[in-house]
């Protein structure tokens, strides 16, 4: 099918989203984003140039971008919203130098520091996750990768949590070798989170103690072990728009099942302290771009949504279909009731696993 000309190729070359200083923003050609959505729904992926046109679009285009993205989201997930509960099972004490992270060795942020929690603490958190309507319990440790004691603790607790609370388990344990991935699969872990965090070209600017390829290899080990891959990133770390597009396409190429998109919370005491905040409009355009590039993947509005989207959080759910309910690793989320009210006010439904959602063919 034909697609409306991109903003960049319009005869009015000032219609390409963000305008040079002094020029007022204008709308993109009518129907452009809707035509892109139609093409995606017909099975034809968008190009990197078209993905970039979403990020470069004027803020005036945000309603049209979200409306087009909602068509894709609704086709695959209807109005369902899946909830995740995040548990920081080990905090601080990390030898890596990820510049965004308050738990890294280069951070001066005051964060709790403790080794992996005892069984009763992890079970109590699982109870809270089930009580809050979460389908997935995310077990997270701060580390380069799990040591043997931590592996055994996970192997022991996961079967008990699944048996008692019927929760899916997502483990976020750092870098994994193939044997560790197989052990996690054997004990009942459903998926592993390991974020790419940024593009390959930008990665060395935010971390030097491991590489982008190290992260990709962990995801390959997870996939080869038969678990689902949960991987996304952080936007607003000084990367270019091309970097954000590159990350979205890398995630599509890897075939990850779940994509959390964080918006940088520039925590005082970290190397990224003072980084200019991403606007709510740019965050919404980025979320929509991830939906266009990964149309049938679970897309989660993750850390930073309360800080950056604020009153526009409901708009993000027109393209994303999952949320964390409760707090993050070292920062607070909004009250769970506020999330429930937001979902209800949208007319959306909290659901179980994606496989249980009726897909509108």
From TrEMBL:
<feature type="binding site">
    <location>
        <position position="230"/>
    </location>
    <ligand>
        <name>[2Fe-2S] cluster</name>
    </ligand>
</feature>
<keyword id="KW-0408">Iron</keyword>
<dbReference type="InterPro" id="IPR024177">
    <property type="entry name" value="Biotin_synthase"/>
</dbReference>
<comment type="subunit">
    <text>Homodimer.</text>
</comment>
<dbReference type="InterPro" id="IPR007197">
    <property type="entry name" value="rSAM"/>
</dbReference>
<dbReference type="InterPro" id="IPR058240">
    <property type="entry name" value="rSAM_sf"/>
</dbReference>
<keyword id="KW-0004">4Fe-4S</keyword>
<feature type="region of interest" description="Disordered">
    <location>
        <begin position="1"/>
        <end position="24"/>
    </location>
</feature>
<dbReference type="InterPro" id="IPR002684">
    <property type="entry name" value="Biotin_synth/BioAB"/>
</dbReference>
<feature type="binding site">
    <location>
        <position position="94"/>
    </location>
    <ligand>
        <name>[4Fe-4S] cluster</name>
    </ligand>
</feature>
<dbReference type="InterPro" id="IPR006638">
    <property type="entry name" value="Elp3/MiaA/NifB-like_rSAM"/>
</dbReference>
<keyword id="KW-0479">Metal-binding</keyword>
<keyword id="KW-0808">Transferase</keyword>
<feature type="domain" description="Radical SAM core">
    <location>
        <begin position="77"/>
        <end position="302"/>
    </location>
</feature>
<feature type="binding site">
    <location>
        <position position="98"/>
    </location>
    <ligand>
        <name>[4Fe-4S] cluster</name>
    </ligand>
</feature>
<dbReference type="InterPro" id="IPR010722">
    <property type="entry name" value="BATS_dom"/>
</dbReference>
<comment type="function">
    <text>Catalyzes the conversion of dethiobiotin (DTB) to biotin by the insertion of a sulfur atom into dethiobiotin via a radical-based mechanism.</text>
</comment>
<feature type="binding site">
    <location>
        <position position="170"/>
    </location>
    <ligand>
        <name>[2Fe-2S] cluster</name>
    </ligand>
</feature>
<keyword id="KW-0093">Biotin biosynthesis</keyword>
<feature type="binding site">
    <location>
        <position position="138"/>
    </location>
    <ligand>
        <name>[2Fe-2S] cluster</name>
    </ligand>
</feature>
<keyword id="KW-0949">S-adenosyl-L-methionine</keyword>
<dbReference type="Pfam" id="PF06968">
    <property type="entry name" value="BATS"/>
</dbReference>
<keyword id="KW-0001">2Fe-2S</keyword>
<feature type="binding site">
    <location>
        <position position="101"/>
    </location>
    <ligand>
        <name>[4Fe-4S] cluster</name>
    </ligand>
</feature>
<feature type="compositionally biased region" description="Polar residues">
    <location>
        <begin position="1"/>
        <end position="21"/>
    </location>
</feature>
<keyword id="KW-0411">Iron-sulfur</keyword>
<dbReference type="Pfam" id="PF04055">
    <property type="entry name" value="Radical_SAM"/>
</dbReference>
<comment type="pathway">
    <text>Cofactor biosynthesis; biotin biosynthesis; biotin from 7,8-diaminononanoate: step 2/2.</text>
</comment>
<dbReference type="InterPro" id="IPR013785">
    <property type="entry name" value="Aldolase_TIM"/>
</dbReference>
<comment type="similarity">
    <text>Belongs to the radical SAM superfamily. Biotin synthase family.</text>
</comment>
<feature type="binding site">
    <location>
        <position position="300"/>
    </location>
    <ligand>
        <name>[2Fe-2S] cluster</name>
    </ligand>
</feature>
<protein>
    <recommendedName>
        <fullName>Biotin synthase</fullName>
        <ecNumber>2.8.1.6</ecNumber>
    </recommendedName>
</protein>
